[in-house]
Amino acid sequence: MDEINLTSSIRENLLSLQHASQVREQSAQHLATGRKVNSAVEEPASFFAAKGLLDRAQGLAEAKDDIDQAISAVEAASVGTEALSEIAKQMRGIAMSARGGTDEQRQAASERYDALRNQLDQLAKDITYNGVNVVKPESDDLEVDLSESGSFVVTIEGQDSGAEGLAINTSSFYNNFATDEDIDGANAQLREATQTLRSNAASLGSDVALLSDRKEFVVSLSNTLEDGAAKLVVADMNEEAATQLSSQLRQQLSLSTLQVTGEHARSLTQLMS
User: Fold this and answer.
1) Helix (H) or strand (E) holding 113
2) Is 133 helix (H, G, I), strand (E, B) or coil?
3) If the chain, 273 residues long, is cut into consecutive pieces of 10 residues, what is the mean pLDDT of each piece?
4) CB 3.0 to 4.6 Å from 110: which of 7, 56, 176, 254, for a disulfide?
5) What pLDDT shows up at residue 89?
6) How far apart are CA 14 and CA 2, in angstroms?
7) Strand, coil or helix: what is 152?
8) Which residue in 74, 195, 199 sits closest to 144, CA to CA?
9) Smallest Cα–Cα separation from 136: which of 164, 108, 96?
10) 175: which residues sit within 8 A by CB, 6+ positions away?
11) Is residue 135 within 8 Å of 200, Cβ to Cβ?
12) How far apart are CA 114 and CA 172, in angstroms?
């Protein structure tokens, strides 16, 4: 079998051709996927650093979803509390309208008063968002995880805004408004209940503001992490296109050089034979 001898020039051109082919294939993959790092084999440090950033961004996205749900639940409670306050005001108006009235007027007022009290109690139970109600009778606290790791949890305190929680008694407690003194007693208690509801609404508003601020921070940080990951692995399409063209030209030049070198070698062989 004849031995094939390669000159140093031919070997260099073959190596150059092989390298240009590898670069071109890699660049083609980058252009196809839009990523300059597609696996840990290519650039382990960049790959795992980007993965760590994206994992944390995913955790923050989940925290944002929890915060969004909490904001909606607290906003629903805030709106509901305003409605409860309006009912309490109506109850005060009904009670006060019976002052100086006849027995029949006082009795009718006490019945309307109790009907509104029942409405207030039912509304407090109905102010629910996605199963969460922080103003129902004997309401529970709402815990919200504001971080991706569970290390920062805030508690939205439950506010019992039912009739008993607000210490709004039935009209029978005030002798069905038999006297003006009874009515004044009901009015005083309703005034305190209205003030409590006003305070509760302000507290819920502060909770919404806190959660909204944290949500804005979480979104901003998540975007920063995703941008950082992209810088590590996302390909510069213009740069990759230029690399693709450059490697293609190098391949063509190496092939041309190999062809010329081969022809020259054959000519020398023929002259020496």
Assistant:
1) helix 103-126
2) coil
3) 52 57 58 64 81 90 93 96 96 95 96 97 95 91 86 90 95 96 96 96 95 94 89 64 58 58 56 57
4) 176
5) 95
6) 21
7) coil
8) 74
9) 164
10) 182
11) yes
12) 9
| Whole-angstrom distance, CA of residue 56 vs CA of residue 50 | 10
Residues 6+ apart with CB under 8 A from 248: 20, 24
Which SS3 state, helix, strand or coil, does residue 102 take?
coil
Q: Quick one: DSSP state of residue 132?
A: B
User: Can you give 189-210 as a three-state secondary structure string?
Assistant: HHHHHHHHHHHHHHHHHHHHHH
Residue 153, class by beta-carbon neighbours within 10 Å (0-12 exposed, 13-18 middle, 19+ buried)? exposed
Q: How many helices (H) and strands (E) does the chain have?
A: 5, 2
Contacts of 244 (CB under 8 A, 6+ apart): 24, 27, 28, 31
Residue 135: both structure tokens together: 């103003």
With a CB cutoff of 8 Å and minimum separation 6, the contacts of 50 are 37, 228, 229, 230, 232, 233
How far is Cα 137 from Cα 117, in angstroms, rounded to an integer?
A: 13
CA dihedral sign of residues 30, 34, 37, 41: negative
| Tokens, residue 214 | 């944290």
**CA dihedral for 115, 117, 118, 123, sign (positive or negative):** positive
- What 3-state DSSP class applies to 161? coil
Contact, 161 vs 81, CB < 8 A?
yes
Q: Position 49: which residue type?
A: A
Given this model, what pLDDT does residue 236 score? Answer: 55
Packed helices 180-233 and 44-97: angle between N→C axes, nearest 10 degrees? 170
